[in-house]
Design a protein that fits this description.
115 residues; alpha+beta; 3 helices; 4 strands; 29% strand
């Protein structure tokens, strides 16, 4: 932080998974599981077993990737609530920070060039 800027709070903005993606992932995993069961039980030839095994792997991989992605910390960007005193050059401030919101004398900012 620049001299003359007092950081009051740091807010980590995290990415969340939309509900429709959860539903599509669950539907895909169920569908792949059903296809796998169908191929493994109805076809005793090598191609049916191979396709069934691939469907089982695809279903399991989908669920595992979703669980790992959903449980990991996905900080998209960090916002800071700050106060700015009169000694701060606003030109230098605006080169380094972007103002997101202002509430009286408290500014919510993020660093420029960071997502």
């Amino acid at each position: 932080m620049l001299d003359g800027i007092t950081m009051l709070n740091q807010i980590d903005i995290c990415r969340s998974v939309p509900g429709w993606i959860v539903l599509i992932t669950i539907a895909f995993a169920i569908l792949m599981g059903l296809v796998a069961v169908s191929l493994l039980t109805d076809n005793y030839n090598k191609s049916g077993i191979v396709l069934g095994a691939l469907c089982v792997v695809a279903s399991a991989a989908t669920i595992i990737m979703f669980v790992i992605e959903n449980n990991s910390t996905n900080i998209v960007e960090t916002h800071y609530q700050v106060t700015i005193d009169d000694t701060v050059s606003m030109t230098e401030f605006n080169e380094r920070y972007e103002i997101i919101e202002q509430d009286g004398l408290i500014f919510t900012v993020k660093e420029r060039g960071k997502q």
